[in-house]
Amino acid sequence: MITDRQSGVDLSELSTWRIGGSAERVYFPRDFAELAECAREARASESRFFLVGLGSNLLFSSAGVEFPLIVTREMTACGPYEAAQAAHSIFAPVADAAGNRENLLYVEAGAPNTRVIQQCIERGLGDLTCLTGVPGSFGGAVAMNAESVVELMHENMWLAEISRETGEIGVKPAAECTYDYRYCSVQESILGAVLLRLQPADSDKMRRIVEERSEERARKLPLDWPSAGCVFRNPPRDSAGALLDMAGMKELQRGGAMYSPRHANFIVNTGGATSDDVVELMVSGKRTVWEKFGRSLQPEVKFVGRFDEKALEYLHANLEEDDGS
Question: For the chain, which domains are there?
């Protein structure tokens, strides 16, 4: 039974950018079983629905979202396989073949990356410190292959997913996924939970790595304003931030949105920013980098809701393949 279905939800509360209008229907499943039920109900009533984790790489439209959203932020279970009853019903066949159950970690899709790393440190298992400073949920990190986590864990990770078309539940090893820079094929389904097989690791060493990386992140990144992290992907053998910096984007502002003076690939919300403000800045950044350096930047953030179609078409266009048109 679905117990948390809401309407008129303020989307700015579901995004780290703190931008967005309202959503007509939002589900907040609390576990894998409710996630499957929400997906089936949403699919039965609409041809399209969108999965949201902690909203760290999303730009919601200030005009709102008409199709259903399924938000996994309540699905935060993360701990030893043996202690998680839900894990047994989902991953039992896998666990039987995975070896030492003491080394297995069950993680629901909405668990924050910080929590997963902390579990590894507490249990002396790892090493997922590569995700230090990566905002959002572990499910999002897998879907985006953040820090190449799918490649890193592909022989030691199993995914419980729900078919978008049929609502059927399946479990498969990550090795069966295809993945690339900022992409894993699990995006085509609904990732609900993950089982990890980890190896003994030095807790003190992992803790030091986390502290050092957190300090470095605080020094380099604009964490004092709401943002979605980097807005453009790094082109091959280049840095989007460096290109935007050389193009003079730092501190360029539209409404409440501004290219950060600390990191040119961050657009921050200085207060009251709208989705149109952000899109206008992204279009300006992409156009200027193309005109100055002949490099075609591609968005790293995802756009959810109603936007100017021509602006989005331009942002996603590969200008190099289009011969600059």
Answer: 5-71 (3.30.43.10), 78-207 (3.30.465.10), 240-316 (3.90.78.10)
